[in-house]
Structures are given as C-alpha cells and as structure tokens.
Specification:
Layout lengths: L3 H14 L12 H10 L5 H14 L3 H5 L3 H8 L5 H19 L7 H4 L7 H10 L10 H9 L9 H11 L2 H17 L22
Helix pairs in contact: 2-3, 2-6, 5-6, 9-11
C-alpha cells in the first residue's frame, strides 16, 4: 500500500499531465449524461458520442424519452451493444425521473441507485460531474491502475476499491483523480503494452518494483 505522501505525489503528477480532468461524454443536460453513461457500458465513449446527437435530437426532452417506444430507441443505439436492455433502462429511467423526482436528476447516492440501469459507478459520476460532490468512479481503468500503482493491493471488486479510495483520497480531489485514471489508462497505461517509458507515475508501478 502507498503512503499518503506517495498518493499525494501521484495526484500531483497526474494533475500536471491532465490539467483538464473532464468526462469525455458529451452532454448538455444532466439527464443526458445519465443516459450516456448507461450507453457507455461495454462500449467506448467515442462510440456513444457518435450515437447521442441523433438520439437526443429525436427525443429532445425528458418527457419525450419517457413516452418513447423502446423499439425506436433501440434503433438509435443499436451500435453501442446491449441495446435492448439499455433502451429499456433509458425509457424506464426517464419515466422514474418524472414520476418520482419532478423531472430532475436526484443528488443523492441512495436515490440515484433506485433508478433503472444506475449502479454505483454511474451514480458517482453524476454526483461528481453534475453536483460537484466527492465522487469515486471505479471503472476498468481505475481498477487496473490503482492496483498497478499500489494504491490498493490485488483488489478487483469496484465497491471495495471505492471504499479504499474514500479513505485515501482528499474528497475535493476524488472526482478529478478518477477522471485522470481514465485519461491515463487510455493514453499511457492500457491493459496491454503500457508505455512505461513516458509514464509520470512509473516510479510507483508494481511492474517496476
């Protein structure tokens, strides 16, 4: 396990590498981010960003999504995989947002997790990016990198990694740190052929110890 001083060094290095720690999904409304994250499951953000302009154009309001035919939504999202379950969840989620929350995305983990298709990763992203709350988005990049650089030790369960990060990361830096895990995982430290020679945090990597 890394010391707090080492974790602070890792945070600082990644801040220099990725000063803009932003979600790569494109959206204008909070519910659009919610739906985009659902679409991104087992799919790339790049693909989702190709799909959503037409999808959000066809269904320009939350009410339009709530009244949508699931089959028609499927046609718009077909290329992002698992389109049937995703289309169903999006329509049901829109209906739930209107009936339970007056058309607004809730700002608590408890209420977000009650929405169709929303798990802890999605809920954390919404809490951080929409509401500015401390958030701990544990995706495949975060799982891989936190293990590689010794922030956690041989933990693959996202919920357990989230619990560890809550103890180790300054709350005000948590959301940006998780975004930087994604950016670093894509640009420098993919699962295969990591570019260790240009990695600013290679010093902490378990592969180099």
């Amino acid at each position: 396990m890394r010391t707090q001083e080492q974790i602070d060094e890792i945070i600082s290095a990644l801040e220099k590498d990725y000063p803009l720690a932003e979600c790569s999904l494109e959206f204008e409304r909070d519910y659009e981010l919610l739906f985009s994250v659902r679409l991104a499951a087992q799919c790339t953000d790049e693909r989702v960003n190709m799909i959503t302009p037409a999808l959000f154009g066809r269904f320009p309001t939350l009410e339009a999504f709530a009244g949508a035919d699931v089959g028609e939504v499927e046609e718009y999202i077909h290329s992002c995989g698992f389109f049937r379950s995703k289309a169903r969840d999006i329509v049901l989620c829109a209906q739930a947002l209107i009936s339970r929350h007056g058309g607004r995305v809730p700002d608590t983990m408890e209420e977000l997790l009650k929405l169709p298709g929303v798990g802890r990763k999605t809920a954390n992203l919404i809490l951080g990016d929409v509401f500015g709350q401390p958030s701990y988005v544990v995706d495949t990049h975060c799982i891989r990198l936190t293990n590689r650089i010794g922030i956690v030790e041989n933990i693959k369960d996202p919920a357990k990694i989230e619990a560890e990060l809550r103890k180790l990361l300054p709350p005000e830096k948590s959301g940006d740190f998780c975004h930087r895990m994604v950016l670093h995982g894509r640009a420098v430290c993919p699962a295969r052929a990591p570019k260790c020679e240009i990695c600013s945090i290679a010093l902490f990597c378990e592969q180099n110890i």
